[in-house]
């Protein structure tokens, strides 16, 4: 489930500091005249009303309870020279003058009645505003210097919102439209008496319609200045009729979404014959995932997930009789599977990796560096301290860390609540998070924002905290500053700027490991119901939930999601979306789902990646020519390490087991028989932080054993 902490913080705090449906400048039509005169007359008339202001008997008036406020910023006599800011001030004064929420709603409905006529021919999918509970259509015309808007909705409240926005922004220049911020409309407070969910969905309407207006304004400026249209990111459009790829990178992804039947049969046959289970990470090569997804319909012991669940799934497979487990992931994942199976009593179940070379991970490598040891050494000298380590690290790193500083693992889904609970449970605690520097910085930023909330809002996020306690922990949260995921590192400034220009009105997903700019953008989208920040599973769940909501509305929809994580996620996303769309009966309104890859359209390299790993044999190697990592100038959101898990390797391992001749010895997952510096088993000590996390997930509290270790009451348990 998506992190409650992120949801609450984004709701309370964050402010704003090629697709035929959304990205084409053809939506900027030649200038024509919308008849907003009735709306402006209504606007001026309502602003001049004074209902029994001096009598003090507001209840005598059945329409409004108090008068408009005379403003120092009253608009000039000629509305043509009134700026949007002045018109907004008059509008705000109008609503602020009404003390009763019901009266503000009535005023909003009066504006709705004056909304200019919107022709049925303009109620097309390309004019729909995404992210609104009601259906909203927005049409724009411009000559590059003046913006003219018309809008409509199937909800009268939403029509009122649109009328207010048009009253303020119609006739404005594109630059004036871009100067508006959603919080400028916050004082209207139209729905203050509604339930929390209703309030947020209606606030989202203001925000999302304004964002759509601003997207058109940006396009108008670009066209006026003669700038060529910006090429869209590659994408896949999933519909009941199939999949359409846009861009060469998307085509490379799509080619494996309908796998070859003979390969499926070959894999299923050998898995059944030899009782082999398969656990794979979401970031696998699309060819492998396509085969596995199809094979799962014939063999149940196949599981694709994030790293946390892989070992648990392996145990269930062993309990069901699987004799071997193949692990498609990086090396720390196969190590974890081996150790957890051993702890569960399945020492005889074989565990195999997919390469005879090292399958590394930039984050895991960062946590095994000398600088990380120094980071932990500093932590050990600042008691009481707790080391919160990301699950995506090796058992050896966890073990060595746990002997230096009491340690608990975390995931991108539970890290915020883990740290908040630790601070609440252990007085004067210092928390040391690592190794992902971006995630650490994002956590620190979240806590800074929390410190600005009220006590009540903070307790919504964690009942053990208030403003005073949050402020007190800011100086006691430390994070490692020299580690990152090479994939999520690519979601930097260039990608963010392109998303702002072309996809500001789309759904935005981001892994918690992304850099700060992308994190802030996704959190802003999340605040208006248009984004998610979290784990791979959180991202998948968010997309599924938005698709379910669209299907429940039973109207034609085009949902566009920017995928702010490794592109290997696409196979699981496509499978989930196809399943949902397949439940629709024939004749139902068409729902399309577009997944956007924030990479260059031509970012597929067939050259080998510079390094010691044999990834060139994959045939299609995503990534920058002659280097790891990604950029919009030729790279992609694709992990070169994960792509070492090929279908060829999987079939080879499956056909070779049982490995009586030792041919697969280099493919066997490491069984860590080495000792820690204190002479204990690395496997035993490395699993303990994971068990601490499982206790926290089950109870919401740190286990007593860990607390005793932090406080030094149980020092012998660490030796």
UniProtKB/TrEMBL annotation:
Family from the record: Belongs to the quinolinate synthase family. Type 1 subfamily.
Instruction: Using the record, list the residue span of the signal peptide; answer none if the entry has no such feature.
Output: none
Q: What class of enzyme is it?
A: transferase
User: Domain Fe-S metabolism associated, which positions?
Assistant: 93-215
InterPro entries hit by this protein: Fe-S_metab-assoc_dom (IPR003808), NadA (IPR003473), NadA_sf (IPR036094)
UniProt EC number: 2.5.1.72
Q: Which GO terms describe its biological process?
A: 'de novo' NAD+ biosynthetic process from L-aspartate
From the UniProt record, list the reaction(s) this protein catalyses: iminosuccinate + dihydroxyacetone phosphate = quinolinate + phosphate + 2 H2O + H(+)
Biological source species: Rhynchospora pubera
Pathway listed for it?
A: Cofactor biosynthesis; NAD(+) biosynthesis; quinolinate from iminoaspartate: step 1/1
Q: What is this protein called?
A: Quinolinate synthase, chloroplastic
Q: Which PANTHER family match?
A: QUINOLINATE SYNTHASE, CHLOROPLASTIC, QUINOLINATE SYNTHETASE A
Q: Which cofactor does it need?
A: [4Fe-4S] cluster
Q: Name one GO molecular function term.
A: 4 iron, 4 sulfur cluster binding
User: Per the record, a Pfam family?
Assistant: NadA
Which key words tag this protein in UniProt?
4Fe-4S, Chloroplast, Iron, Iron-sulfur, Metal-binding, Plastid, Pyridine nucleotide biosynthesis, Transferase, Transit peptide
């Amino acid at each position: 489930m998506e992190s409650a902490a992120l949801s609450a913080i984004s709701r309370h705090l964050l402010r704003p500091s090629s697709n035929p449906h959304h990205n084409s400048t053809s939506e900027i039509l030649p200038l024509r005249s919308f008849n907003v005169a009735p709306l402006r007359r209504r606007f001026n008339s309502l602003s001049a009303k004074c209902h029994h202001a001096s009598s003090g008997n507001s209840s005598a008036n059945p329409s409004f309870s108090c008068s408009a406020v005379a403003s120092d910023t009253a608009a000039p006599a000629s509305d043509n020279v009134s700026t949007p800011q002045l018109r907004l001030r008059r509008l705000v004064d109008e609503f602020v003058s009404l003390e009763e929420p019901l009266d503000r709603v009535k005023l909003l409905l009066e504006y709705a009645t004056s909304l200019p006529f919107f022709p049925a021919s303009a109620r097309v999918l390309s004019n729909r505003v995404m992210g609104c509970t009601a259906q909203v259509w927005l049409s724009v015309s411009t000559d590059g210097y003046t913006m003219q808007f018309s809008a409509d909705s199937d909800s009268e409240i939403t029509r009122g919102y649109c009328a207010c926005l048009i009253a303020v922004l119609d006739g404005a220049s594109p630059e004036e439209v871009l100067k508006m911020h959603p919080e400028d409309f916050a004082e209207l407070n139209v729905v203050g008496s509604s339930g929390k969910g209703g309030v947020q969905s209606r606030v989202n309407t203001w925000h999302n319609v304004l964002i759509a207006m601003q997207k058109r304004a940006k396009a108008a400026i670009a066209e006026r200045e003669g700038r060529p249209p910006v090429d869209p990111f590659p994408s896949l459009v999933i519909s009941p009729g199939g999949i359409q790829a846009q861009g060469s990178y998307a085509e490379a992804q799509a080619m494996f979404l309908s796998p070859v039947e003979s390969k499926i049969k070959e894999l299923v046959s050998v898995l059944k014959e030899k009782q082999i289970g398969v656990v794979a990470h979401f970031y696998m090569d699309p060819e492998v995932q396509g085969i596995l997804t199809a094979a799962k319909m014939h063999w149940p012991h196949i599981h694709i997930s994030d790293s946390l669940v892989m070992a648990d799934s392996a145990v269930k497979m062993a309990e069901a009789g699987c004799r071997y487990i193949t692990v498609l992931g990086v090396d720390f994942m196969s190590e974890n599977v081996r150790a957890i199976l051993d702890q569960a009593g399945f020492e005889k179940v074989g565990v195999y990796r997919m390469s005879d070379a090292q399958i590394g991970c930039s984050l895991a490598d960062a946590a095994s560096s000398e600088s990380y040891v120094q980071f932990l050494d500093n932590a050990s000298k600042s008691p009481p301290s707790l080391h919160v380590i990301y699950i995506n690290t090796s058992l050896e790193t966890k073990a060595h860390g746990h002997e230096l500083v009491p340690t608990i693992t975390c995931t991108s889904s539970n890290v915020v609540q883990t740290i908040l609970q630790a601070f609440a449970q252990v007085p004067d605690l210092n928390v040391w998070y690592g190794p992902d520097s971006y995630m650490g910085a994002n956590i620190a930023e979240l806590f800074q924002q929390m410190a600005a909330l009220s006590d009540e809002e903070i307790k919504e996020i964690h009942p053990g905290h208030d403003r005073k306690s949050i402020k007190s922990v800011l100086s006691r949260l430390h994070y490692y500053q020299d580690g990152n995921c090479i994939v999520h590192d690519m979601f930097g400034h260039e990608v963010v700027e392109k998303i702002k220009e072309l996809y500001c009105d789309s759904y935005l997903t981001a892994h918690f490991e992304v850099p700060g700019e992308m994190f802030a953008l996704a959190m802003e989208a999340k605040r208006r119901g248009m984004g998610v920040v979290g784990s791979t599973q959180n991202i998948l769940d968010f997309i599924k939930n938005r698709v379910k909501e669209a299907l429940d509305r039973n109207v034609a929809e085009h949902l566009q999601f920017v995928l702010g994580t490794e592109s290997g996620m696409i196979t699981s996303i496509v499978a989930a979306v196809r399943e949902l769309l397949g439940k629709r009966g024939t004749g139902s309104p068409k729902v399309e789902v577009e997944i956007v890859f924030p990479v260059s359209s031509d970012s597929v390299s067939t050259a080998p990646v510079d390094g010691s790993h044999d990834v060139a044999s994959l045939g299609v190697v995503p990534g920058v020519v002659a280097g790891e990592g990604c950029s919009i100038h030729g790279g992609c959101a694709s992990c070169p390490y994960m792509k070492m898990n090929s279908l060829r390797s999987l079939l080879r391992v499956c056909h070779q087991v049982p490995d009586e001749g030792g041919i697969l010895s280099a493919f066997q997952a490491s069984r860590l028989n080495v000792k820690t510096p204190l002479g204990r088993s690395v496997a035993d000590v490395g699993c303990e932080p994971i068990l601490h996390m499982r206790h926290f997930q089950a109870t919401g509290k740190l286990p007593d054993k860990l607390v005793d270790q932090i406080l030094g009451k149980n020092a012998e348990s660490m030796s």
